[in-house]
């Protein structure tokens, strides 16, 4: 109970398997990380960032929280974004939501869920902004999935509104923010065709003066 042997056994096998394919893999990786991507996704155990795009350790910088939300007072998420953009010079930020997200579903019902209700308020805000469009969907399932998509788009813009991203654009650093959604049912990613790569694409209210 106190020692999770299975996990340590499996870790040993995994490390050996990687070393068989590339004996220098860990030696190279230990010197530096040089990822091109920052992934902001849901904490859901079924949506692991690196695996679903077939990448290796070292290729994606990752931040995950319930329902992939980017809040401008969340020091944790903002610190990840700042480090990824300013220090690692990543080129792409990907917000990846997923259909049938438990956080989104919980934000849509009117039950009390405890402390997490404070976090879910951020998703309720997205619901309020797009209430008409969401409730126009025929079934509850479609309504949930539409909010899952709209939540991703909203978070893409929340990222673009940060001074971190706007300052990167100001200095000419190439940086694009993408919105994707993943289906747990078939393991397939879908591009929501929102990709913001310069300040002209964000609202005047949030655009900083240069
Ligand atoms: Co989720």
What does it look like?
This protein is of the alpha/beta class and 210 residues long. The longest helix is centred in the C-terminal third of the chain and has 21 residues, at 140-160. It has nine helices and five strands. The protein has a five-stranded mixed β-sheet. The chain has helices spanning 5-21, 25-31, 49-52, 75-87, 102-108, 117-129, 131-135, 140-160, 163-170; strands at 37-42, 60-65, 92-98, 176-183, 188-196. It binds cobalt (II) ion. The site of cobalt (II) ion has 7 residues, from helix 5.
The dominant shape is globular
Mean pLDDT level: 97
Walk across the major sheet and give the strand order. 2-1-3-4-5
Which structural class do you get from the secondary structure elements? alpha/beta
Count all strands and give the number: 5
* Regions with little confidence, pLDDT below 50 for 5+ residues: none
Taking the alpha carbons of the first and last residues, their distance comes to 57 Å
Strand content: 15-25%
**Helix-strand pattern, N to C?**
HHEHEHEHHHHHEE
Radius of gyration: 19 Å
Largest sheet: 5 strands, mixed
- How many separate helices? 9
**Quaternary class:** single chain
- Give helix % range: 40-55%
